[in-house]
Specification:
alpha+beta; 6-stranded antiparallel beta sheet; 34% helix; elongated; 28 strands
Length: 716
Amino acid sequence: MTDLSDSAEQTSELAVLRPVLDGLPVPAIVVEASSGQHGVLHANPEFSRVFGLDGWPADATLREMLPPERTTVLDGPPLEEVLETITRTGETVTTRVQHDVPPGAAGALRTRWTVHLQPLGTGDTAWGILGVLVDRSGQLFAGARASESTALQDLAAGLTATKPVEQVYEDAVRGAVLAAGGQRGAILLSEGGASFRVAAATPDGVLNGPITVEELASPLWQACLGRRRIAWSVDDETADGPGDAVDTTPLPFAGEPGWEQLLIVGLRLHGRWQGVIVVGEPRMATFDAEALERLELVATLSSTAVDNARLVDQFQRLEEMLTAAVMTSAALVECTEPQDVQRRLLDGLVGDMGLAGAALWVPGSDGEPGLQLAASAGLPSEVHELIAHLPDSSMAGKLAHGAVSGRLRQAATAAATSSWPGHEVRLVHVPEPAPGILGVYVDRPVPDLVDGVLATLAHALAAAVHQATLHERARTVVDSLQRELRPRGVVLPQQVDVGHVYRSATAGVDVGGDFIDWFVTERDEIGVACGDVSGKGVEAASLTAMAVYSLRAFGMRGTSAAMLLQLLNGSVVDQTPPERFMTLAYAKFDPATWEFQLALAGQPPPAVVSAGGARLVDAPPDPPVGIDTDTSFDQTELQLGPGEALVLYTDGVTEARGADGALFGSARLIETLSGLASGDAWTAQQVADGVWAAIQEWTDGGTTDDCALVVLRRCE
């Protein structure tokens, strides 16, 4: 900058002005007025940031910093003439300037400014001119805060796109830094214990992890748990938000270069993940009063995006594991020896389902106490040695002897897994006639619905070991797997009366290609499905398994009927051959209002039944699931009154053929339903049984297709 030594007045006044100008949230500049060259005496950080002038020579002139070819006065003479007029007259001037900012500069989107110019000095002679720029709206902070507002808008738009969790963290930390007005930032996550890992950081915000904070009363944990948000400075150590003032440093690196001022807010993540967003080094002298509010908004947006990304990842993971589990179960029938069955199952868990490791323990021979390792896959040798024998007092031993029950998740610090840090083992009881304990090791979270898959595999393992022939083993594996897909243990509100009929047309097989399901969502809504998959045997079983588990995974979140079919359609198209597809009717309703969302994919329209008769629902018949990725599905809204019922059914009902080849048909179904509901008192199960009896009578007991029907009745 220009030498000030020849003017004591310049030196003293500029010394006072510098900290004031540097703290302004808008561009400001001081140029000398005495020589006519307009040398730059001082440009505040916001001016340099907006106009991309970092590292400019100390003796620069205003003409060099804002070249005439890039700078235009919109409503007056050229800028230099304006400055000369101010020097001569001592008057304050306001003008409008358009400046073409170089590409990449921070203010590239804000090229028009209102400039307030005033002389500096005493008497008739000005030693300098102060220029303060505000945006074209005339609001003092609007120009400076445009980037923060734009950052929030860009972040909100960007986080709606489907992307991996790691990318969401990277986008979130960049958005947090811009929105809060900082220069560096990081996202810290705790997944249990006292250590936080750095999930994402800006290039100049990289931290050496993990970061350990033992005390739950520390400011970091208080922010992580959502009990306070923190604005901390090495000078005054103050806090904003609930709680007392912070009297200790909130982070181990607080106060280090670039981290003398911090903003910290918590990430509200579902499940066992907890974390914070940290932003440091304000672009101006301090963070403004609204910085914490903007950062908290970033945290809210980011938390939602992270949860969505994890949910999508879990859905994909679940679908992959379900497909692999069904194929693994089916492959067991190829094994003729018990040891081959065990080895094939464990190899499938690791190789096909992508789990870290697997082990199978069986009771000791000849009454020997404890459990012996019968087979393993994917385990390091040191872990294999430690778990070769487990005492009855271990969690696996207690589970085997009935001391504890259910499906367990055991932490990695337990004796059986202490030698494999970063992993946890899920233990599942293998029932008679081949009792044992199946242990599955994971190194990253898996959906909780996988516990049901593991239990099904444990049953399939026991069945496969027990069976003597290939035919009986194949049938047992398929039946064991598909029976897990039946609705069970679902507690419905008292005002909901449900009845159903499910019949397989295959002799000796309880479960066919049709499926039914109902469940209660996280929002206390009820979802009900009735569908039919293409194919038969093991291939049909795999698609049925995917359908029901995906339905539950998508539906438990309260997904709308049309969106559920859309998600399921993408899964089936991606995971199955082109010739595989399914038809499906899915309805979701609120038991408090009985307002339904209904979507159909190749299924016949359901019927509404009341004391006055029955009618078909007028709903669009969209294509089956799995035909085309671009298929879209419509949604129909309806409401049941007291005493009315909704009937979902597969084509095995309406396409049942009589002795002369005639179809049972929709008209006969409506007639049958009307007759069944004509009495004073009837239940959902009575209606379902009555329809099946009518079909049996029509076909003379010779049904040739699977048949499924669900009746939901609103009790009066």
